[in-house]
Amino acid sequence: MKLGAAFGMAWRAIKGHKLRSTLTTLGIVIGIAAVITFVTLGASLSAAIVGDVGAGEAQTMNVWAGPEDTQGGGGPGFGAQPVFTEHDLDRLRNVEGVESVIPYGQVATTAVGHDGDRVATSGVVATTPAYFDDAEFREGGSFEPGTRQVVLNPAAAEQFEQNATVGSTVTITLANGSTVDAEVAGVLDSSEGQSAFEGFGGSPRIYVSTDPFYSTQVESPSQSETQRVYSLLLVRASDPETVEATQDRVRGYLEDESDAADLAPEDYQFEVQTSEELLEQLQDVLDRLTAFVTGIAVLSLIVGAIGIANIMLVSVTERTREIGIMKAVGAKKRDVLTLFLVEASVIGIIGAVIGTLLGIVGGWAVTTLLDFPLTFPVEWFPIAVVVGVAVGVLSGLYPAWSGARTDPIEALRYE
Amino acid sequence: MQDSDVAVSLTDVRKTYQLGEPVHALDGVSLEIPRGSYTAVMGPSGSGKSTLLNLVGCLDTPTEGTVTVDGRETSDLRETELARIRGEEVGFVFQTFNLMPRLTARENVALPLVFQDVSKDERHERAEAMLERVGLGDRVDHRPNELSGGQRQRVAVARALIADPAILLADEPTGNLDTDTGAKIMALFEELYDEGNTILMVTHERHVAEHAERIVHLLDGEVEAVEELSGAGRPTGAEVGDGSGAGGPGDDGRGDAEEGGERA
Questions:
Q1: B97 touches chain A (CB under 8 A)
Q2: Is the pLDDT score of A350 beyond 50?
Q3: Range of the domain at A123
Q4: Which SS3 state, helix, strand or coil, does residue B168 take?
């Protein structure tokens, strides 16, 4: 029996039971659509995060002291304690391969005002001008160290009734109630995070100079004097090729010679990770999440397969007489097997194609709803169709086999 | 054993079913069906008529003895080979027509050719010609449920003949038809017989069986008698039985009445 003829007859049989075929196909449609939707969601989520990685981030190390047993799973800066003294920063700047060391601290605030408009703000970022080495400014530039200047990201500049611009004044209300007027030195071009410590996304951020704003201090164990102390550092390597070696030297200094080693609580360890490594960890978590959700979707696909098997069994029983007729006019076992397998496969293919289309729409809808950039995992679409066919063939296998071995004499007698 | 003039021969055929205790559906039947002959098999239910038809039609193989269809012995053939013989050397006509409900008349007639890998164009061409032959040239696109009983049986006859088989097997072909329609189907059979087709027909109705040139009477799985009929100038068959049958020469069904669109 030629495959074309088998398709023709299978299609006739499917059309013969429209409602039943539709419901059976629906099982596959839902399964495939769920898989595609969740895989698309996962891919879009990854792209949204990975897309934030800038060019220079492979050579930027994020440094903090975090609890030992998180294995980096807590994300950048998780559990960080203020342990890095000015002395440590100076020493790190002299480590071979290090280009710059940038402190990243939080100054607690209650509000920020501009032109008579006050906006509640829990904190501003205290850092050094080097933080903006790779950043692009819409206007102005970095603040000068030692001055009362601020840098705003566009979201922060636009949060006031009157947009803050370079040269205007913002009033920062510190957590202790005192207020400080500062001049806007620059507005960044984009609200995207400038480092992994900021997290991703574009919430309003205000950056100030560590001097004079940052006031967290401790007595340096090695210098026996009071110094500023930071919980988060960015260390930029001068050469992207030797980041790993530099990373080891930074970690070596921190563990063996630094004030931080003395100041850090027990059970803490130093994390020295490039943004890339952090992303990989994040990606890992995302992948696991996607796999989990997709696993649930695959379950529904299995339910769909059982549906096909069930309906094919009913179909074989119902068409016992037809099988008898076909055998009487010369159908071989293989012909009957082919016929039912093709029928199951056609249901699988149709289900897979509709399911894929529906999954694409679903993926688009969910990413739009969650406001992610849409990324289609195109390689999954042919896989989905292949899986649909495979599900059809596998679930049709037993019914087809039981149909093929039907005794024609019995079958012709069957009412 | 068989020469080319024999379409089907059975030699000492036994068919035993194990139903708790062995039941001999056929118990030593020998029969030769010459090419171009028209044979009717009669007998009460349980006499082995259907078993005989199934064996000749290669739907079944004998427990003992040999069945030879068109020169090929069936007992040690593989199932695939039996299926091929069913498709190419045997044409079945059933009491209940047994058409595929979702296929058109043309497709039903062409069905055996599907399993012989004949191309679609040729299938349909041959099927249409065959439907024309049985008088249904204008019904090729009708489904079985759009056809009368007589028309359905004509479709079945066309299907049985499509592969030019060595023998046409009919199992109570008029059993589900009214008398008038049945007579017209019998007329068709006679035309086919006159054209040289070999026909083996099972029936329990005497007046139907009398259309044949001889009647084989079965009883309890054995040939009770073979009755030669000489009517309408037919050549008398070679085989002679023990002649216990009454043997009326009646041949009333040979009318040439045109069949209309009657519903069964």
A1: no
A2: yes
A3: 82-263
A4: strand
